[in-house]
Amino acid sequence: MNQIRRELARVCREYLFTEKILICPDYASGHSLLERLALDGGTWLNLHVATVDGLALETAELSMLEQGLSLLPDASGLFLIENIFRSLRLDLEYFNTLEPRPGIIGALDRAVGELRLAGINSDRLGTVPLPNQRKQRDLVKLLKAYEEVLARDHLVDMADVYRLAMEAVRNRAEDTRLFLVPTDIVLPPHQGAFLEQLAGDLVVFLRAEPVRKLLPPRSAWLVTDEPPVVPSSNVQRLPWLYDRSTLPAAQHDPDDDSVQIFAAYGEYSEAAEVLRRIRGAGLPLDQVTVTYTSYDYAWHFYRLAVKLDLPITFAEGIPLLLTRPGKALKGILQWIEGDFQACTLGQLFLDGLLKTGEEAPGTIRSADILRKAGVCWGRARYQPCLEKLAAYDEAKAADCGTSRYGQYQTQMAEQVRLFKEYIDRLLRHIPAPGDDAQVSFQDFAQGLAGLADGFAAVSGSLDGAARQTAADHFRVLAGTKELRIPLTEALERLQRELASLRIYARGPESGHLHVTHYRRAFWLGRQHTYIVGLDARRFPGSGTECPVLLDTERSAIAPELPLAAARPGESLWNLVQFMANLDGTVTLSYSLFDTVAVRDSVPAAVLLQTFRLVRDPSADYNAFREAMQPAAGFVPLPGQELDVDEWWLRVFTDTGSVSPQLVRECYPDLARGQDALTIRGMDTLTAYDGKINVPPGRFDPRLNNTLILSPSQIETLAKCPFAYFLSCVLRVEKPADRVCDPTQWLAGKEMGFLMHDIFCTYYRKLSATAPGGQQDATLLMEISDELVGGMLEAVPAPSDVVLEQEKRRIRRSLELFLRAEENYGRDSRPRYFEVPFGMGDEAVQAAGVGLADPVTLTMPDGLLIRVCGRIDRLDETDAGYLCIDYKTGSPRYYREQDYVQRGRQIQHALYAIAAEAVLQAGPDPRAVVPRSGYYFPTEKGEACRVLRPQQDRTIVLRLLELLCTLLRNGTFVVAEDGEACRFCDYTSVCRPDAAIKAIKVKLEAGKTPELSILQEVAGIA
Predict the structure, then answer these.
(1) Are residues 831 and 952 both part of a single domain?
(2) pLDDT for res 255
(3) Contact 951, 930 (CB under 8 A)
(4) SS3 865
């Protein structure tokens, strides 16, 4: 039993029936002290825990009720100061150039609070001679305005509470309660003055073990000097930490390990080492307290608690952002900040952070609806896009009638409408900026409270507590005086408020390790204490002055005002006072390396002082650092592993390798993966390379007449059979989520679709006449403006500036196109546009020419395949027809001397065959297409044409035959050259480097006949 508990037990025995008030820094500490006293065998009767603030509020309560006064909430005080600053800003002389950012508002709020608690009002502040009179006049104005608002709104702050409480004490009968005051408690002057007046002579001091030689803080209410005792262990020598010269002589036990020190490589390693030492010593968790100098360590212990399923209580709670509601609210704020990007909202659904309930589709279906609706971004787009999608599904349902598919479409339409209502409810909680581009912060806070209540998903009691905490906090903010600020500033404030929230703050519990700040651990009384975070960066902290009131100004105003320069000394005194009253064992630690900043860390001076006390009185920092080696790291010593991950890491580090057989036995899935790698490394083709055993007619269009290929699919097969397998067989698609690019409106494919539409619409309106002259340019630009407007409805521009840049680029391309058409028009006349084959009757009717059925090609082996597609343009020339396919990219990879480029540029040849079939079946029975190719009518392509003769079609048919044989054999391997990987959507799936290397090995071995087909394809230029 330490000194405080002995004193408390004595007083409780002597004053058994007297009402006793135990003065504590907080209620949790007081209850912990009483619980520990009970565990030590002590008893108490008629004893109550109280804080000085609580006593002041209790004493002033009646006076506040009689005068109709209410206590100003902490959150409201900050906004009150900000509103005052904004209203006075133009009249200020010193602070008028400062923006009302959170930092300056917080500093002003603290300065006003400290001045008032020190008894300084605006009148008195104006009479103090300060060197900077401009600043002084500003502070007087701010303080006076603050006083006026409190008076007007019948509010009181804690300074008023203490004033009213002291008046009440003077006007009432003498208190009969006995006030118990521990001597290690630190009370600011206003609390000390009130307690002296309230308690009078009815004070009993509970003497703590004093700190010798160190000067106590100015706010320490009482420090007593006790007669020296002879310490029997290192932990009992800690009161003499800074006064070793007066340490009573005692026999030193060289095996005494009641005080230990260690260093660690990083904060996480430091936290893990604490747990290793606890487990290694076999300590009961509820006999251990871990204290820290920075809340950052609580996060590390929480990670370890989750990972190891360890029972831990956190006195300062855990961050609300670690919970599902916290992540949901953070995601919603990021969604708003990113201009309501649909992909951000969709990810919240997929992560299960938003609940949909019975009134809306499930989370996965909701994310799918967002994709299909094509919202992209922009708040105003959600409702019209969802309405359009619902109408589309309803129209499809009407066309299909009562069929199974019709019923499915009806159900889809109903889900879209339900989701539309859900989004409408969600958006109603988010205020839109007004005409002044500002929002009410209070309305936004109220909306966020509603979002927490109605939309944040919850799983378990922790999430439930987080949702309630968030909703309550933002409702408090909503009750403050209205503040209109820009949207970005409101979002920044709300994100900061959200990040500051903590939940599940709990005191010590049976069977649980307790983690807290050392300032809150004075009276916990557990037998084993760890103090982490004792590096010089964190402890004892800096004495950075307040920018609003410098220390010299504070000293001139009132001696009661706290000084920044005194903070490091106060922190040191508090820590040493805490250590001086500990029982059992104490372990101190620090991180010798900052793993975030990637630099060495310096130990706090108190560590060296402790090392000198318990180990080597003459040690310097070099000797201390040497003694701290080896530092605890990510790799534990044998037998100290916390979990299986650390065990594997230690084994690998010790031996440089891990037994493959051991890995296989422990992890069957890894064993199967290792088998796959081994088999893939063989020189024959296997299933792990893309060889699939299927019936011959499953994927071969020659043997399966239900399969119809398009030129783009055939080119994909030629580029990479594995990519074909993923896209055309498995139907794996890259998620169609659009992310707003602030520098670009349309992606490459979208720009290509737009330019195709412009060219097609232009020539259809112009009929068969070659363009030329102003009339044609005017028509082309009108069509461009109309179609650009239509594209804007589907894909919003990130900004007006970017949109204008894109429009100018399109206009320059169209001007280039017109000039090129005048030149090319001497030899050819555009006749048909967007000519379909195999696309159905409606497509033919829309184009005016085409084939409803696919075009059939006869292979050299006599088998048939069917092909479908859409030809961009057919021109008529003296020699026949010219087949043209628009490309909006660069002609860099297209050369006239190539023909089909190993099948990767076979489109022109297939279109030429299809064009002849279309024309011969319709407008021109004798039609021939001697040339076909690609047209690059944009700035990037410089209106270049790459045309290729179509005389030898046996090459095309042979190439198709080879590719179909790959399909028949189920050979879906990765292309060996990797050329297509640069523009492939599937590189994250196939890991091309390893796959290409494996295929090259098999090609060189020559043991796989299927791969010889690929070699023959590669030889066809």
Answers:
(1) yes
(2) 81
(3) yes
(4) strand
For the record, the structure tokens of 137 come out as: 């006049």
Asked whether residue 811 falls in the same domain as residue 954, the answer is: yes
836-841: Cβ within 8 A, 24+ apart: 836/869, 836/870, 836/871, 837/867, 837/868, 837/869, 837/870, 837/871, 837/914, 837/917, 837/918, 838/708, 838/866, 838/867, 838/868, 838/869, 839/868, 839/869, 839/870
- Lowest model confidence (mean pLDDT) among 162-171, 898-907, 1008-1017: 1008-1017
487 and 557 belong to one structural domain: no
Residue ending a domain, choose from 627, 657, 677:
627
Q: Which residue has the tokens 């975070």?
A: 533
Residue 879 located in a structural domain: yes
pLDDT digits (tens, 9 = 90+) for 405-429: 888 888 888 999 999 999 999 999 9
Is the domain of 455 the same as that of 546? no
**Residue 367 is encoded by which pair of tokens?**
């994310």
Q: Which helix (H) or strand (E) holds 874?
A: strand 869-877
pLDDT digits (tens, 9 = 90+) for 618-638: 999 999 999 999 999 998 888
Q: What is the pTM of this model?
A: 0.84
329 and 293 in a common domain: no
Q: What's the pLDDT score for residue 774?
A: 47
User: Which residues are registered as beta bridge partners of 865?
Assistant: 857
Residue 192 lies in a domain: no
Report H helices in 359-486. Answer: 363-373, 382-400, 404-428, 441-455, 461-478
Look at the block and give the residue holding tokens 């055993």.
Answer: 693
Q: How far is CA 493 from the centre of its chain?
A: 17
| Confidence at residue 515, expressed as pLDDT on a 0 to 100 scale | 97
pLDDT of residue 251: 66
Non-local CB neighbours of 702 within 8 Å, separated by 6+ positions? 859, 861, 863, 864, 865, 964, 968
* 42 within a domain of the structure (yes/no): no
Say if 191 falls within a structural domain. no
pLDDT of 277-325, one tens digit each?
A: 999 999 999 999 999 999 999 999 999 999 999 999 999 999 999 999 9
- Domain interval for residue 918: 748-958
d(CA 349, CA 422): 13
